[in-house]
């Protein structure tokens, strides 16, 4: 292997590490809280058709798993109408206030 190939591989690995770190901490929880109230609470308030849902309904890893794998199974169109960025912000808010987080919270 010549030094150029070696350098390329190094660069690629660095880029990968940087983006995967961002993927976990990339959302804006403050915006996510607003978006959650706006886009989710209509159905997920107490007595709502989706059942009451607050950040404390799940643990941090349950929220992350839901947003990574299960939003396609969510009934209706809501997850198809919000952007990836908004989805990430909502995920961040729910994660940061989850049942096992340092600061568990209901939605207020
Ligand atoms: C149009 C109504 C509606 C909206 C808006 C809505 N949901 Fe739902 N949601 C539902 C229904 C209905 C279910 C299925 C409930 C069931 O199976 O008991 C559900 C299920 C869920 C579940 C699984 C519940 C569980 O206990 O695991 C999650 C998580 C969820 N929704 C999150 C969200 C988030 C986050 C948003 C906002 C981006 C949202 N929902 C917006 C109607 C809605």
UniProtKB/TrEMBL annotation:
<feature type="signal peptide">
    <location>
        <begin position="1"/>
        <end position="23"/>
    </location>
</feature>
<dbReference type="InterPro" id="IPR009056">
    <property type="entry name" value="Cyt_c-like_dom"/>
</dbReference>
<keyword id="KW-0732">Signal</keyword>
<keyword id="KW-0408">Iron</keyword>
<feature type="domain" description="Cytochrome c">
    <location>
        <begin position="27"/>
        <end position="98"/>
    </location>
</feature>
<dbReference type="InterPro" id="IPR036909">
    <property type="entry name" value="Cyt_c-like_dom_sf"/>
</dbReference>
<dbReference type="GO" id="GO:0046872">
    <property type="term" value="F:metal ion binding"/>
</dbReference>
<dbReference type="Pfam" id="PF13442">
    <property type="entry name" value="Cytochrome_CBB3"/>
</dbReference>
<dbReference type="GO" id="GO:0009055">
    <property type="term" value="F:electron transfer activity"/>
</dbReference>
<keyword id="KW-0479">Metal-binding</keyword>
<protein>
    <submittedName>
        <fullName>Cytochrome c553</fullName>
    </submittedName>
</protein>
<keyword id="KW-0349">Heme</keyword>
<dbReference type="GO" id="GO:0020037">
    <property type="term" value="F:heme binding"/>
</dbReference>
